[in-house]
Specification:
Layout: E1 2-13, E2 16-29, E3 34-38, H1 45-52, E4 58-65, E5 68-69, H2 76-81, E6 82-85, H3 99-110, H4 115-125, H5 142-154, E7 160-164, H6 172-189, E8 192-196, H7 200-206, E9 209-214, E10 217-223, H8 224-228, H9 235-245
Parallel strand pairs: 3-8, 3-9, 6-7, 7-8
Antiparallel strand pairs: 1-2, 1-4, 4-5, 9-10
Helix pairs in contact: 4-5, 5-6
Length: about 250
């Protein structure tokens, strides 16, 4: 479904040295699969997602969708098939736009008909319902805002969702609700997910396979079973797995 081959992303700015944020990263995602990307902050994992959807400069390598290389800039047809849910629900919605406006805009851009029915169906699908249609973001909780963001991504009926830390800004109980929502929608619609997270428990729950990144490079690829068995082949991944367990009594100084 989606293939990343030798992806390079370099940010350049006048008077400053270029920054190689992604260095030769490659992976493939099958149709209907949920694929995870993990790593510490600054490892380049979110930049990979932004490069896929055309928001970061691809300076090398190739991204293909069902065997077809993606053009730059991305075409409107691409956004019918691929949508992204961003990390911060407080920043990804316009504060002066109602939920109705947020959901109407992509439908208008893509020329969809029956917009009112589609908006109400999208809100129902994410567990909000039409009562939320004319509310503003400040009238919503963090979990409700992220549900609106998911509805906005799904309203164009895409095949692929790019999920950039979709629950990291939410409380633990709300995280579980949003993750269960995403799990259910993927099962019902046969969606393909590429999910970035620093939380290995989230990735273990949501994804069949994952890529570990460090300093912009791919370190290793693991299956869900290998992750749960903590069967890593590199020192970095083993340290990452150990850190994910958190503080234990054995870590206390003598």
């Amino acid at each position: 479904m989606l293939k990343i081959d030798g992806l390079e992303v370099t940010f350049s700015r006048a008077g400053a040295d270029p920054v190689r944020a992604v260095r030769g990263v490659s992976f493939e995602v099958a149709q209907g699969e949920s694929y995870g990307i993990v790593g510490e902050s600054g490892s380049g994992k979110s930049t990979v997602l932004r490069a896929i959807c055309g928001l970061a400069p691809t300076t090398g390598g190739q991204i293909t969708l069902e065997g077809t290389p993606l053009p730059a800039p991305r075409s409107p047809a691409f956004y019918r098939r691929v949508q992204m849910v961003f990390q911060d629900p407080y920043a990804s919605l316009h504060p002066r736009h109602t939920v109705d406006t947020v959901l109407s805009e992509p439908l208008a851009i893509q020329g969809f008909e029956r917009r009112e029915a589609r908006i109400e169906a999208a809100l129902t699908d994410v567990g909000l319902g039409p009562d939320f249609r004319f509310r503003y973001p400040h009238q919503l909780s963090g979990g409700q805002r992220q549900r609106v963001a998911v509805a906005r991504a799904l309203i164009l009926e895409p095949q692929i969702l790019l999920l950039d830390e979709p629950t990291s800004a939410l409380d633990a109980s709300i995280q579980a609700e949003v993750l269960n929502l995403l799990d259910r929608l993927r099962a019902e619609r046969g969606l393909t997910y590429v999910m970035v997270s620093h939380d290995l428990a989230v990735i273990s729950h949501m994804c069949e396979r994952l890529l570990v990144m460090q300093h912009g490079q791919a370190v290793e690829e693991l299956s869900r079973e290998a992750l749960r068995a903590r069967a890593a082949s590199t020192d970095y991944t083993r340290r990452l797995l150990k850190a994910s367990v958190g503080y234990t009594r054995e870590d206390a100084p003598a």
